[in-house]
Structure formats: C-alpha cells, structure tokens
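Problem: given the chain below (216 residues), write out its structure.
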Amino acid sequence: MISEDQFRQAKLIWDYHHMGHRLRKVDVAVGLGSNDLGVASFCAELYHAGLFPTLVFTGGSGRPSAALFPRGEAVHFRERVLELGVPDSAIVLEPNAANTGQNIAFSRQVLADAGITPSTVLLVSRPGMERRSFATARRVWPEVEVVCASEPVSFDGYLKRIGDEKLVLDMLVGGLQRVIEYPKLGFAIEQDVPEDVRSAYESLVAAGFDSRLLST
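Solution.
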C-alpha cells in the first residue's frame, strides 16, 4: 500500500504526463502497445465517434505485457477492438515494435506501405504515457501534427483498475526518466519539467519505485 505522500507525488507525475490536447478528427490513430488493454477499448470508442478512419496498433511482446499478451500487444489490441465492433478493414497491424521510438517509426512505415501518408495523427496511449509519446513523435515523425489522448480516468481509479500500485508508480517514474533523458540521446524532443515534478520523481526513486528505470 502506498503512503499518502507517495500518492501525492505520483499524482503530480501523472498530471504532468497528460498533455491536455483537445480531441478532434485526424487522418489516422495509432494505438500504442502497453500492458493496458484499456488503450484498445478507448480506441474503439474514438473510432465509433468518427474521429478517424484508420487505426494502427503497434507493439510486440515486452516487459511487463508478455504474460498478459503472449501473442503481442498489437495482436491482442486488434482482437479487442474487433470485439467492440471496429471493422477489420479499418485496422493496420504493426506487431514488431519494442519501444516507443519503434512504435512511431514502424507505424509510419506500415502506413506508408499501405499507401497512407497522414498529416494529422492521434496517438492513443495508456494514461501516464502521453508526454513521452508526444516528445518521441515530434522527433521521429516531425512532419505530422500530433494529438495525444488516453482513457479519461482518475489516478485513483486507474490504480484500482490496474490493481498493482507499485507497477503503476514504477512505470510513471520510468516514463518521466525517459522524458528527461531521451532528448540527450536524440530519441525525443526536450520537455520542460517543473521542479515539483522533479522533486516527486526523486522522492519516489529513493523510495524504491525503480524497476522501470533505465539501466546505467
């Protein structure tokens, strides 16, 4: 059970990760693979709302999703939206990406292979991954206009739905570390990180929420 201070610190990071973009119609959507099948369900909701005609699912099988999605994230996400009434003809599958940079680059390629060159792209991620997705896409796919979205759920509600507080906090912390470090490596564009968010990050790392940190 996390403490009240840890909840508050994690909530700061959670809020920072959300971009606050306004949803609107786009040329294509890209559902980013993760351990959260809610991404697929939200993609189906947005498709039925008429926000896009084409939906890419991207992602192979990686930590911590391998046990949940043994045939790969993109494959399981596709199956979920088919259950929710999205036609197979609207779905493009990218089953090989192993990280966010590959999610973006490989999605761009499979769309090109299908003869689709979008100018606007909606990136749908799990909550707590919007900013990293945005920063990565601006570096890897700079010619498109990017809109970010995730399931509209409260932090407390998300913790309860996932059912593993430490995993959620570890992923929030690891995601923020990548937002900070990846621009130095050329993987993403720079993002301003407020001091209170950095302080929360450092406190949670010191408290042991570190399983998703980059190895040094």
